Amino acid sequence: MSIEEFFELSAGKWFSHRTSHHLAFKQSESGKSDIVIEMLAADHPEVIKLCEQYEIDPKRASCGARVTWNGTMEWDEQDHKGSTVLVPVPNEDNPNEGKLLREMGYAEKMPVAGSYKIGDDEALTLITEYETMWSEERLWFASPNLRMRVGVLKRFGGFSMASFTSEIRMGGTASAKASEATNSASS
């Protein structure tokens, strides 16, 4: 599966349920979100703008996605809402690896570029280094309408959080090409 196919398969409306384990506090919490993922063409103005922000030739971008979320976490009463644009920029010698440009990071609310890799098992691994922390997240499809992810967040020399998330497609459909790729992987 290519990064473009992974993004295409991810397009749609999802219900997300996350369980996070805060290792320093020896506590866990759960959260729920509605997530909408919209595909953006490689020549979309937001994709071009993000590439230029990182001083990367926009012609190297393979596609883009706008991710919007609205959720709640167990420990706090505030809503967690936001939106970001993601742009994968494949390595020229190996398109299954590259940079992932983000308009806004997950762990710190600032623009950040990380790296991605699509493995032989068709799982997407994202590694992002922030100023004060490092995160690794692995995403895969159990079926075209069920996406899983696990993540770890490390700061100040030790792991501080681990999470597991299941996401169920609630609307929109995966492209036929991406669905075929997932179905052949599970065979």
Automatic annotation (TrEMBL):
MF terms (GO), sorted A to Z = lyase activity
Listed name of the protein:
Chromophore lyase CpcS/CpeS
Which function does this protein serve?
Covalently attaches a chromophore to Cys residue(s) of phycobiliproteins.
Its EC number(s)? 4.-.-.-
Pfam family name, one? CpeS
**Is Lyase one of the keywords UniProt gives this record?**
yes
- Which UniProt keywords are present, listed alphabetically? Lyase
Organism, by scientific name, is: Fischerella muscicola CCMEE 5323
